[in-house]
Amino acid sequence: MFPLRRNRRLRTNEAIRSLVRETIITPNDFLVPLFVVEGKGVKDEIASMPNYFRYSLDLLEAEVKELWSLGLKSVLLFVKVPDNLKDNKGTEALNPNGLMQRAIKTVKNACPDMLVMTDVALDPYSSVGHDGIVQNGMIINDESALILSQMALTHAQAGADFVAPSDMNDGRTLQIRQLLENEGFINTGIMSYSAKYASSFYGPFRDALDSAPVDLVDVPKDKKTYQMDCGNRIEAIRETLMDIDEGSDIVMVKPGLSYLDILRDIKNEVDVPVAVYQVSGEYAMIKAAAEKGWLNHDQVMMETTMAFKRAGADIIASYFAKDVVKLIS
Question: Could you give the C-alpha distances from 257 to 42, 101, 287, in angstroms and in order?
């Protein structure tokens, strides 16, 4: 007696596999992180992130136009701030003519329809590398959240479509939403890093922005008092629901691959778009293993990307975005 149903019939060749595939990747799935630096003519490869670069504003314009030509319509901006502009309060973050504010204007001038999201965090501006003011060896929450809201307002004033608080301080989403509303920026969205874990996968990113915590006696050596514990699951749902209640339009899980269960949990619980961040350490691992010949770069890149969407991501922030889109096109 032969089986009446043979599941392998739907795997016979690429044509049928493509026809019945449940999860499809398109350029519309991606949010492209971009690193911006001061200077002119700068396209500086990040040593721990092969084939990924920091751009000065003049070259940022060309990069954005290329992204748009590939069908990539959304970017997430980060800035590398010169050391002489850093202090414990992140004062430079509020400069209306700061690097981030100029970067927003550069992208919008180059490509007016490009969706611009901005990183709202103090660590690139902090002389001690933390996402908040350090006082007596602790991160001060409420004063830090106030500065973050003021920072977000300057991004909105410069033309950002969405602000993306990535700090995990309590109440910062509400502070930002209230200030934006009070100042008339009712259509500026918020994408909160709602379930951001204190992960060891962020190292190359901190190299890119020179934003790691400094090793001083009165400075916390890590971010575990505000970013989430990797052993917690229920807390991620609680954090995310609070962010939505405080005004978040999109919520994010970060990192990605090690937290696919969290991504699916949150997707099952909420009715707003859910983003995931394939972080720098994940990117670097794939690049390093591929360089060694230990795995096939493009196949693993596509498999991990598919995993994010299959797990429930509506938006994928990824350093592989350009490579994926070139491959699938």
Answer: 32, 32, 15
Reported as a single tens digit per residue, the pLDDT across 226-245 is 999 999 999 999 999 999 99
The single residue of 86, 89, 223, 254 carrying the catalytic annotation is 254
pLDDT in tens, 42-88: 999 999 999 999 999 999 999 999 999 999 999 999 999 999 999 99
Which amino acid appears at position 8 of this protein?
R
Catalytic residue among 86, 89, 196, 322: 196
- Which phi and psi angles does 73 have, rounded to 5°? -115, 5
For position 212, what pLDDT does the model report?
Answer: 84
Largest CA distance in the chain: 78
Which residues are bridge partners to 318 per DSSP?
Answer: 278
CA 41 to chain centre: 25
**Catalytic residue at 65?**
no
Which tokens in the block code for residue 248? 């978040």
| Dist. CA 293–CA 195, nearest whole Å | 34
Q: How far apart are CA 289 and CA 300, in angstroms?
A: 10
Residue 111 has pLDDT above 80, yes or no: yes
Amino acid identity for residue 69 in this structure:
S
Mean pLDDT score, 147-158: 98
Tokens of 292: 């060694």
Q: Is 99 left (phi over 0), alpha (psi -120 to 50) or beta?
A: alpha
CA 293, 50, 72, 241 torsion-angle sign: positive
- Distance, in Å, from the CA atom of 64 to the CA atom of 66, rounded to the nearest integer, reads 5
Task: Assess whether 322 carries a catalytic annotation.
Answer: no
- 225 Cβ contact list (under 8 Å, min separation 6): 138, 139
Of 9-13, 164-168, 207-211, the least confident:
207-211
**Residue among 63, 321, 44, 27 nearest 210 (CA):** 44
Look up residue 173 and give its two tokens.
């989403």
Determine the 3-state secondary structure of 188 from DSSP.
Answer: coil
